[in-house]
Design a protein that fits this description.
The chain is of the alpha+beta class and 442 residues long. It has helices spanning 56-60, 76-84, 117-131, 143-154, 163-175, 179-187, 194-224, 235-248, 256-265, 271-292, 352-361, 385-395, 404-423, 429-437; strands at residues 6-7, 19-25, 29-34, 43-47, 51-54, 105-106, 113-114, 250-254, 298-303, 311-312, 318-321, 329-333, 345-346. Strand 6 and strand 7 form a beta hairpin. The two termini are 40 Å apart. Bound molecules: zinc ion (2 copies). The site of one zinc ion (ZN) has 6 residues, from loops. One zinc ion binds next to loops.
Length: 442
């Protein structure tokens, strides 16, 4: 069996045996192609992001994740207690939780948390010398703190990206020994034209963005001004950065509870005990649903060089999963892929409805899907159905009679629709709902 290669910024793509990059044409740009026959379910490669940042509201609401790799830091029990607002909740089979608080460390100055000493030292080497706010609690007038405040006020949940992703990009360049090389890595991402950029940023950020754009640019410049990329600190420059992460950004989600649940699923138990455990977990998810809605994961976004070469398809042959419980993504084949001219394609949006909306509005390569750490898990069914049901009923009355089981099939659509609804502030909700309604999907 082929060994799965994990790509990081120091890897040569020649080490990857499963895929190669080829220029398709000037319109489509680069594409990823299968180097040999790939079977369904196999992992094409894993990739560590160039840069990754947790969403700010997600962090604000105490979804604790490693500042560097986004691994969830709460134990499954603490996570379930918080999300269900039940501090006395005790989880059985504690061995199924993979979080080890003993290995967690903080930055001694600003006290941001890391899952391990390795992550802390990587962050420090890469960007944290620039981004450390030096004290805890931080000075509210510190420019880096102000950027986050401004951003939170213009970008409410559900979030699609974070200003800290841009801050980290610039901090990486600031700290790099070879700055040209660091800039080059970001320059290699797929770019939009100036007109597309404007439209993209407008759709991504909404009207609030326009109102507070100047404030954002001035605090951003005060905190991070860097001469080698001075052009990024202009209105056009910062727009192009937002367009870059809007075009290439990949959603990341991690959850210690879902890792725990998936490990519980793998336990060999007597039938009676299995049923008992399953209904216990069912109840936890019901309680969480009532208390926290569908915000279960530590969420963020990241940039991956190789994965960003995947093209879009409405009938994808691969998908991104987070099998390592951190921001390292795994590209998994959804079907058998033949050698050669078959491009590796990701579905950005899972349905024809949203896809047609995407095509109609020329919104390139938007990749803000919410992933659970165990995307194929039946546990997806636990995401709050009573909320989705109302939403679906609005689109189609028959949804009031749909079971939670069927919801599994529609769940992805709803989440994506919701996110896209948030991205397209300028379009009325009704036109989007009508689009979904008119699709053959329903
Ligand atoms: Zn970490
Ligand atoms: Zn620090």
């Amino acid at each position: 069996m082929e060994v799965v290669v994990t790509v990081d910024e120091n890897s040569s793509y020649d080490d990857i045996k499963s895929v190669y990059i080829k220029l398709i044409d000037d319109n489509k740009g680069k594409g990823l192609f299968a180097a040999h026959q790939i079977s369904e379910g196999s992992i094409l490669f894993k990739e560590v992001p160039l840069v990754c940042a947790q969403f700010l509201w997600n962090e604000f609401y105490k979804y604790k994740a490693c500042e560097y790799c986004m691994k969830a830091l709460e134990t499954a029990e603490a996570n379930a207690q918080r999300l269900s607002a039940n501090p006395s909740l005790v989880l059985p089979h504690p061995e199924c939780c993979r979080v080890n608080p003993q290995s967690h460390v903080e930055c001694p100055q600003c006290r941001v948390e890391y899952c391990s000493k390795e992550c802390r030292s990587r962050a420090w080497q890469k960007y944290h010398q620039v981004l450390c706010v030096s004290q805890h609690p931080p000075d509210p007038d510190h420019p880096l703190v102000m950027i986050q405040d401004v951003w939170r006020n213009m970008h409410f949940p559900p979030e699609t990206t974070s200003i800290m992703l841009l801050a980290k990009m610039i901090a990486i360049i600031k700290q790099a020994k070879d700055k040209d090389n660091a800039i080059e890595r970001f320059a290699n991402f797929c770019r939009a034209t100036a007109n597309e950029e404007k439209e993209l940023v407008h759709k991504l950020m909404g009207t609030r963005f326009q109102e507070q754009f100047d404030t954002l640019l001035s605090v951003f410049t005060a905190a991070l001004q860097e001469d080698t990329v001075a052009h990024w600190f202009t209105p056009e420059g910062i727009r192009s950065l937002f367009a870059l992460i809007g075009t290439n950004g990949q959603g990341v989600g991690t959850s210690s509870l879902s890792v725990y649940v998936s490990n519980c699923d793998d336990l060999h138990l007597e039938e009676e005990e299995r049923q008992k455990l399953d209904s216990f977990i069912d109840q936890i998810y019901v309680d969480i649903e009532n208390e926290s809605g569908n915000f279960l994961n530590c969420e963020g976004s990241a940039l991956y060089s190789l994965q960003s070469c995947c093209n879009h398809s409405c009938d994808p042959n691969a998908e991104v999963q987070f099998l390592d419980q951190n921001s390292t993504m795994s590209l998994v084949a959804l079907k058998n892929i033949a050698e050669g001219d078959v491009s590796i394609e990701l579905c950005i949006v899972a349905t024809r409805a949203v896809a047609s909306m995407r095509q109609a509005r020329c919104f390139p390569r938007l990749k803000f899907l919410i992933f659970t750490t165990h995307p194929n898990s039946q546990r997806l069914g636990y995401i709050p159905w009573h909320i989705l049901k109302l939403y679906f009923a609005f689109i189609h009355p028959s949804f009031m009679h749909t079971t939670a089981h069927n919801a599994l099939h529609y769940l992805k659509v709803c989440i994506i629709q919701y996110i896209i609804g948030q991205c397209f502030h300028s379009f009325s909700l009704f036109s989007e709902l009508n689009l979904l309604k008119s699709s053959t999907f329903l």
